[in-house]
Amino acid sequence: MKVAVYSTKHYDQKYLEHVNASYGFELAFFDFLLTETTAKNAAGYDAVCIFVNDDASKAVVEELAALGVKYIALRCAGFNNVDLDTAAALGLQVVRVPAYSPEAVAEHTIGLMMTLNRRIHRAYQRTRDANFSLDGLTGFNMHNKTAGVIGTGKIGVATMRILKGFGMRLLAYDPYPSDAALALGAEYVDLKTLFTESDVITLHCPLTPENHHLLDAQAFSQMKDGVMIINTSRGGLIDSQAAIDALKQQKIGSLGMDVYENERGLFFEDKSNDVIQDDVFRRLSACHNVLFTGHQAFLTAEALTAISETTLGNLQQLDRGEHCPNQVTA
Ligand code: NAD
């Protein structure tokens, strides 16, 4: 099988090539995104392998089908960037990596929480400049605080496990309650209760058309003053402009974002020599109590290995006409 791997970074290539030694696929690595313009590069390939910011919308899927591409292999869990209806109509099969390392994302989530809470990012800057003043660095004990977890699937539960270790009260919101979350002592509540009672709110649900801007001005207005919000899920879950207003009003006390609604074309790239045109991103990143990481929550050696193994395993199953449990359907 010939596979066109879009949006390849050095680490993707390294782990995919290593795992591919036992599959023997013909992998071509493209360092650019899949878009309407770059879809033509998939000519002659059986499969495209894509990541979170690649565009597999209607027009792109149509182009891929016309080129004879049969499979779209997502090397991520989310599939909001793929038009599944068009893929199904044109006979393209779509597979994903539903779980590669929930702990990788959960641990990064906690990293953002603790950095923001104890102002470690600010302390790092100060101590490098021999400024050992503690003014402005006061945090709060996680112990006995309330964490609100939105989405209690694999990552949500892995995060809760750590939060429970801090001695936090766990509130949860998910249309499908999880036994694992309940076993950790989580209390399922409606969103309003979660917003009203949580000191820390962390997002672990997928982005769907229904929950776009789940955290908007109205949601922020219901939260505690000084609430901490962490998003390692998908950028579109937070209305960034409304977040700026809530930060200015000191409603949001700190905001950690590994994902951002307009991250496409920005994250995963070195933009240090460019002038960033996105004023919303600029405004947010200028706040001392906002911490961005560039969609790196998944980035551990264990996760990259698991992503490569599952992706190539998925493609092998499709190639052999076997049932693939990781197939995504409309
Ligand atoms: P999962 O499918 O195991 O769990 C998702 C949970 O969200 C499910 O229990 C589902 O019922 C729930 N849910 C769906 N819609 C909801 C809503 N509107 N409100 C509340 N809950 C809702 O998925 P997971 O493996 O835990 O991953 C969660 C998300 O994390 C993914 O969808 C993806 O967007 C994101 N993710 C980010 C990274 C990263 O590097 N930042 C890496 C992997 C996954």
UniProtKB/TrEMBL annotation:
Entry keyword annotation includes NAD: yes
Keyword set, alphabetical order: NAD, Oxidoreductase
Gene Ontology molecular function, alphabetical: D-lactate dehydrogenase (NAD+) activity; NAD binding
Cross-referenced SUPFAM superfamilies: Formate/glycerate dehydrogenase catalytic domain-like (SSF52283), NAD(P)-binding Rossmann-fold domains (SSF51735)
InterPro entries, per database record: D-isomer_2_OHA_DH_cat_dom, D-isomer_DH_CS, D-isomer_DH_CS1, D-isomer_DH_NAD-bd, D-LDH-like, NAD(P)-bd_dom_sf
Top-rank taxon: Bacteria
Domain D-isomer specific 2-hydroxyacid dehydrogenase catalytic intervals: 3-328
Xref: Pfam families: 2-Hacid_dh, 2-Hacid_dh_C
Name this polypeptide is given: 2-hydroxyacid dehydrogenase
Source organism (scientific name): Pantoea wallisii
